[in-house]
Amino acid sequence: MQSRWIVLVPIVALATGTVPAADQTFVETFDSGSANEGGWTFGGPSGSFPGSGGNPGAYLASGLLDTFAPMPRTTLVGSLFTGDFRKRGVSSIGLDLNTFQAGSTGGRPLTLMLIHDNQTPGNPNDDTAAYFLGPNIPGTGQGWVSYDFFVPSAETELPAGWLLLNMGNIDDPANHTWDEVIRDVDQVRYFYGDPTFFFIFQQWFLGLDNARITEAACEALAGAVPDGDEVPGTMLTIQKTPGTNLRLFWGASCQGCDTDYGVYEGSLGNYYDHSLNSCSSAGVAAKVVIPAAGSTYYLVVPSNGLNEGSYGRDSEGAERPPGGAVCFPQAFDPCS
Predict the structure, then answer these.
(1) What b/e string do you get for 52-85 counting C-beta neighbours within 10 Å, with b at 16 or more?
(2) Among 55, 88, 132, 272, which one is least packed by beta carbons within 10 Å?
(3) Residue where a domain terminates, one of 169, 200, 216
(4) Longest Cα pair distance anywhere in the chain, in angstroms?
(5) Are residues 294 and 188 in the same domain?
(6) Residue 123 shares a structural domain with residue 172
């Protein structure tokens, strides 16, 4: 068994006859040897991946930890466990834990911490954590215990039960809001206890398995790039390069599953004659193009590998038509 995606289809029939979107859960089982999505670690010098004894199969073993509080955590920014949780529709995070040996575990909750590093990795002084205190950590000899935390990523204000923590000084107000943290989670961390309490040092031998994250499954519908109105973000901007080319850049699509962008070019004064310039920007929200002769305009259209999205709206709110030749069939939700 290897790290895997599981699609969870709700067995629910709505009165309207529509079917709610499925969720998908990624599970890091550690069973594929070198795989460790997220770069999970306990932080000790002798972590290992035994091939058996997990829940089931392979797992992450801590080795000897001499610490006041273990903190299993991700170390790879840009993994499936980090990023814009709201855009991805993240709804829960969990893992399985085992305490093989410890001095005292009684009364310590397992705390989930979602950490925003303020674009200064390696400097915790300006970091903010949104955290939630869960059930108690496993007792010695209790075996594998599963933990799953609900993450209300759609909320824009601090949800009930969640707290904010200034990682540079826990006595000072948090540097960032819930909204800022949830839209840019740079690390997932679990803390053995309340992170605002102090604990004595002791020695631990621990195990971690089945690190998981659940998010909205990608739909077939593509989205739209920012338009300065219904879709927020950086609108399409054009700059001249030192030569005769043009550099286009724009904000990301409002649909998290859109992975690429097509660029269409038309003649000013003859609107809606746009034709295909490029089907791909290599997944980057920028593209250098060689302009056609005369005065031109450009449209950027996101795509998800199946369909392309909106070409934007005109001044009266009507959708612009697709180009004469297209990268993908058009099927979109403009996210407005």
Answers:
(1) eebbebbbbbbeebebebbbbbbeebebbbbbeb
(2) 272
(3) 216
(4) 77
(5) no
(6) yes
pLDDT tens readout for residues 81-91: 999 898 888 99
Same domain, 34 and 116: yes
CATH of the domain at 290: 2.60.40.10
pTM: 0.70
Amino acid symbol at 153: S
DSSP letters spanning 200-215: --EEEEEEEEEEEEEE
From its phi and psi, is residue 33 left (phi > 0), alpha (psi between -120 and 50) or beta? Answer: left
**pLDDT band (50, 70, 90) for residue 67:** very high
Q: What is the pLDDT of residues 117-139, one digit of tens each?
A: 998 988 989 999 999 999 999 99
The answer to whether 285 and 259 are in contact (CB under 8 A) is: no
Q: Are 211 and 226 in contact (CB under 8 A)?
A: no
Asked whether residue 246 falls in the same domain as residue 97, the answer is no
- Answer yes or no: do 168 and 69 share one domain: yes
Statement to judge: residues 234 and 180 lie in one domain: no
Which two tokens mark 52? 């058996």
Do 171 and 245 fall into the same domain? no
3-state secondary structure of 336: coil
Give the count of domains, the chain: 2
Residue type at 82?
A: T
Q: Is 258 found in the same domain as 292?
A: yes
**226, 255 contact by CB (below 8 A):** no
Collapsing DSSP to helix, strand or coil, 181 comes out as helix
Per-residue model confidence as pLDDT tens digits over 141-176: 999 999 999 999 999 999 999 999 999 999 999 999
CB 280 within 8 A of CB 255: no
Burial class (CB in 10 A: 0-12, 13-18, 19+), 242: exposed
Distances 305 to 55, 75, 250, 277 between C-alpha atoms, Å: 36, 30, 19, 17
Query: d(Cα 288, Cα 213) in Å, to the nearest integer?
Result: 36
